[in-house]
Structure formats: C-alpha cells, structure tokens
Amino acid sequence: MRRLLRSIDFVLLLITALSLIAGLMFAALGRTAIAHALWTAGAVPVVLALSVSIVQALRRHEAGIDVLALLAIGFALALGEYLTAAVISLMLASGRALETYAQERARREMTALLAHAPRYANRFEAGEWCRVELDAVRPGDCLLVRSGEFVPVDGTLASHAQLDESALTGESVLQSRPPGEAVLSGVVNAGAAFEMVAAAAARDSTFAGIVRMVQSAQQERSPAARLADRYALLFIPVAMLLAGGSWLVTGNAVRALAVLVVATPCPLILAVPVAIVSGMSRCAKRGVLVKGGGALERLAQAKIMFFDKTGTLTGGHARLVAVESDPGTTPDRVLRFAASLAQASGHVISEAVTTAARERNLALAVPARVVEQPGAGLTGEVDGRVVAIGSFAYVSTVAAPAQWSKAFLQRVANEGASAVFVGIDGVMAGAIQMADQIRLETPRALRLLRQEGIRRLVMLTGDRRDVAETIGATLGVTEVRAEQTPADKLAAIHAARAEGTVIMVGDGINDAPALAAADVGIAMGARGAAASSEAADIVLLVDRLDRLVEALRVARRTRRIAVQSVVAGVALSFAAMAVAAFGYLPPLLGAMLQELIDVAVIVNALRALRVRSTATTGTLARGDADRLKAGHVELGPVTEQIRKLADELPRLPRTAIAGALDNVNESLTRELVPHEQRDDTEVYPDLARLLGGEDPMAAMSGMHHEIFRIARLLRQMTADVPIDGPDADSIREFQRLLYGLDAIVRLHCAQEDELFHVLGEGA
C-alpha cells in the first residue's frame, strides 16, 4: 500500500508539472484554449485524489483538511482561473510528495530493522547441516550460523562468535562473545561460522517480538497528529468564513479564491507526524524502540519516574565484592579453589565465582568427584584436596566455623549481599561476598534525569528496607519503597498517576503489571523478560540505563518541534489569508507562498532527526576501556589485603605487626602506586582531551596524590616501628590510615570505572 501511495504521489507530481509547463508553452504561442485545457487536465487528477483522501479521512472519523484544497481548485476552475488551478495542483502534488519523502526518511531506521528478519536456519540433522524454515526450529536444536548470516532465534553460543549487534543496539562496534553466553536473534555473524543451541522458537525470540513492536509503532497515530486534526477542525470553518466574508463585503470572488488558496496547508498539518516519526526514528537509531508516537509524547510530559531495582538500577547478576580468608591462607587461594570446584555447577552464583577468578587471571584446576546438593553447595576434590563451597550451614557440616565467620555473616546481611563459604580439607578457609552491584551508568543517568526536570525518582524493590535504603542513599533517589510485591508496585503507579504523567522502568516478569499501568512503561529489553518488553511502551534494546536520558531529550525536543510546526504553520496561513482577504495577495502568488510555508514547516519537522545525544566530546576505543577496567579488577587482591590487615591489626601479636605492614607496603609499592602513577601520566592526559575543558581530571588526579601520600606515610611509620612492636596509639593510627586508604582506593576505582564506561560506550 505504501509503495502504491508513493507511486500515486509521483504520478500526480509528474502530471501536474508537465501539464503546467505544456500549458505555459501553448499560452506563449497564443493558443490559450489549448493551454486552459492542459491546465484543467493537470488539475482533475489532483481533484480525484483529494476526493478519495477526504472520503478515507471521514471513514476514519478524522478531520479532512484536504477539503480546503479541493474547494480552492474547484473554485479556481469555476472562475476560469485555470493557471491558478494548475499551480495549486502542482503545489499540492509536490507537497504530498515532499511529505511522503519526509516520512519515509524519518522511518528509515525503524523500517530497516524489519529487513533484518531471518528467513531460515541451518539445523544439524542426521549427521549433516540442513537448511530449514524458521518456524521449524525448536528449543534445543543445534544450529549453525555462517559468516554474514543473521542469528535466526535466541539461543546459547556453543563456540566463540564475533557479532554485529548494531541492528538491535545501535552500537556499531563488533562484540566478541565467548561460548556459553546468550545470543539474540537478529544480530549478524561478523566473524567465522559458529554453532549455537536454540533457546526459543522463532515466534518467541527477541527479534520477532521487536518486529511486532515496530509494526505496531508504525501503525499508531500519535496524540500530536490528533492535536493537528483538532487544529484542522478550527481551521476549516475559519478559512471558509474569511473567504465568504471577503466575497460578500467586496463582491470579488477572486479574493475568496485567494483566501482558499493560502488555506490549503495539507503538508503543513502533516508535518506533525513527520516530527513524531523523526523522533521515533532517532530513538531507534540509538537502541531505544518507541512503540508509538503516543508513548513519545507522554514521555516528553513526564515528571515522575519509578524504577525497579534488580536488573534496572543494578546489573541483575551477582559480582564479587570481597574475599575473606583465614589467617593461614590468602584471598587468591580461597577464590581459586572455590572457582575450580564451581566450574562443575551451572548455578548462577557458581558461574559468578568462576568469572571473578578468571577476571583475576587465576589458573583453575579441573575438579573431581563432585557432589552437588541443590540450593546448598558442592563438595569435590581440587588438586587432591577436599573442597566444599556453599552456604554457611552447608560448609559448616564439613568444616569447623571460623572465628571471623559470625562477623562476616553480619556484614553480608547488612549490605544485602550473598556469601559463598569455602572449606578446604575440613578447615573453613574463607568466604566470598557476592552482590548485585549498581550499574556503572546508573548514578550518571539519575543525575541527568534530575537535570532534565524529573522531580521524583522512586526506587521499587522487594529487598529488606535497610538494604534498599542503603542503595537508595548511594544513588540519591528521592524515595525508596522496599519489600514491594507486584501488587504493591501496581498500587504505587496508580496512586502516582493522580500527580502527573508517570514512567515505570523495569525488566522482570513481576514488573509487567506496573509497566502496563504506567503512562509510559519502559523495559530493559536487552536482557529483560519478554513479558516486560511486551507490556512496555518503550524498550531499551541496549543494556544501558543512560539511553533513557537520550530518549527523554528526544521526546521533549520532538514535541516542541511538532507544536512549532502546528503553531507556526497555522499562524502563517492565517496571516496570508488576512492579506489575501484585503486584496493584496492574488491567487497565483498565494499558491506559491503557501507552498513555501509548507516546505519550511516540513523541513523544520525533520530537525527531530538531529536531536543531540548524551555523547561526550570523544570516546575511548572499546578495547582501551575494557583494559582500563580490567586493571581495577587486578587491584582487587591489594584492596582486600589492606582491608583485612586493618580489621586484624588489634588482634595480631605486636611483634607480628611490622611484618604484616611490610607485606602491605610491598603490595602498594609493587602494584597500587605504579598503577596510579601510570594512570596519572599516561591515561589522564588522553581522557582530558576527550572530555575537553582546561583541566577536567584535576579532582581525580588529586585523589592519586592522596593515595601516594598515604602509601608513603605508611612506609615511613612502618620503618619506625620498634622491635617489640607498636604501642596502642600507633596501632590505632595504622588502622586509621589503612581504612582511609581502602575507602579512597575503592571510591576512586568506582569513579574511574564509571568514566571509562561512559567514554568507552560512546554514550
């Protein structure tokens, strides 16, 4: 249908242009009758097309402002103003063609997504790869994706893959994915062929859901378009009254014709959906799928925003926070034994432990004789030693509880984290603290949302109140609602809607009711549940919360542009009608003027395609950002060593304190200080150039110098420790310095990680 409309618009433009030019040539030769016939012949097809448009609009119960154009052409023909009728027809046909082109250009990013729909899959059958229809694929099927092909269904990688995910995420950088990682349908294999295991049928896969959302979005008319229709309902009678009044007062029908000519703003009014679709297209290009123009407009008006915590404000998966170890062992040894055994389990916590060990470049051993008790833990042999990992209750059955275990359990409970205890040969050797950590971009996203005028930021979570309030205080949200059930979340949304337009952001199945109830539901669709994506009005296809800020900026500027298009166009048309009514604007010149107004407003509407993003002035290469963040992971054992010594210092024999301090000083001198010195001299100058400004890294560099100062002071104080050990006051001073250094290093690394993340993603 769309191709047919494009061809009709093109044919109308061609007919009206040729008939006008031919008529002018015959008029110049003095063949006036033939010129009039040609001009009439060019106008008649436009009259027929307008009649069809008006009937279709009336059937949809929409305002048909095309009626003014129809009256203008008909009136011009009736008055013998054949050239005017031809010019009006040409202007109208060119306006329709321009408006169609503008809409198609604005839809480019959204419609391009539909072209990526996979058509078939390569399935392993009877010892060979066979091409099958996409609908024949079932969960568990082994599939082959060749180089350059689209991933047909959601699944799990069986081998390493290089993927181009730009169709879904808007990110042009190739992604390297290891075996075992999830892969979404619709992404492109940019490397060698790889195997995968299907996790869903085609109709249930990510890409199929996105295609349905895009098709729905393209069919929906936005409130801005309906607002333009309401303007049309006012515009038509006013134009008719002004035209009729000028005719009655002056007795000059040509003045009435001139008024009708400049009152034919079909492309003008249609500039509103052009702006809306342009905004939706801009969002799609940045990995934010807006299902309809109505959602974009409501987003622009919102002042209240609710967030689910897990998977939205946080990453949604456990990450290593700290490793506690018995005095007789080291944190790396505890983590290595735990991760080696955890390789035998598919539990998410086991996978997180294994990932943490690999991030620290620990060499893992192959476990043997593994016995798993679901929900409790595992026991097995690693390097000939009997190892047990799991809950405190489970590990306590094979290893005597350590003195530090009670305090560790209390700390984990206070922080809302989880713990994996580790027993080696009947001794509780240590414990690993795991937690769902705040996304690196979350603090920045919330700061930017406040700058954009969101007055309430409310966190909803099922966590305990003390844990939730700690996270809320860290993020600076305006309100925290803890221990929330799906019904509680739904009630909170309903109550807030009385205060204004409400946004709900979530990712899980339990968020779907709240997403559907909010004025604007936004789903974290990159890894979120399909139910939440289906219930939402907007889906973030990129696993980054700060893309929401971009969507908000796009929505607000798009709405401003849409309103500008209506107000400016109608105001200019009214002014032109007034001038025409007083006889200062003849019909022919009025037709040309009206076309200029229409073109100007449509071009203005297309500005929504160029809404600025939250991008920084420059970006780090993805590999550089990952390398810099990996450097902080490698510092993890050092920070743990600092914290552990600070905790144990009062309990150590006085004669052993100097040796323990020497070990920490050696780690600082060998690892921490050189790392920060390299950052200060090699990394920060590059970051400063990317960020712009006179000295953007001054505060961060100041933290480096504070780390250097404390490290130097610790070395000096350690050198001054007497042979029989420090006194009580000196021990307290050492503790103060160690705790201070631990806090500064952790905060500094977190700030740098956020900065690397922002610059590395080209946010």
TrEMBL record:
Residues 117-215 form the P-type ATPase A domain. Keywords: ATP-binding, Cell membrane, Membrane, Metal-binding, Nucleotide-binding, Translocase, Transmembrane, Transmembrane helix. Residues 626-756 form the Hemerythrin-like domain. The keyword Nucleotide-binding applies. Its main location: membrane. It catalyses: Zn(2+)(in) + ATP + H2O = Zn(2+)(out) + ADP + phosphate + H(+). Gene3D superfamilies: Calcium-transporting ATPase, cytoplasmic domain N (3.40.1110.10), Calcium-transporting ATPase, cytoplasmic transduction domain A (2.70.150.10), HAD superfamily/HAD-like (3.40.50.1000), nmb1532 protein domain like (1.20.120.520). Its EC number is 7.2.2.12. The chain crosses the membrane at residues 37-55, 67-92, 231-250, 256-277, 561-582. Belongs to the cation transport ATPase (P-type) (TC 3.A.3) family. Type IB subfamily. PANTHER family: CADMIUM/ZINC-TRANSPORTING ATPASE HMA2-RELATED, CADMIUM_ZINC-TRANSPORTING ATPASE HMA4-RELATED. This is P-type Zn(2+) transporter. It comes from Paraburkholderia translucens.
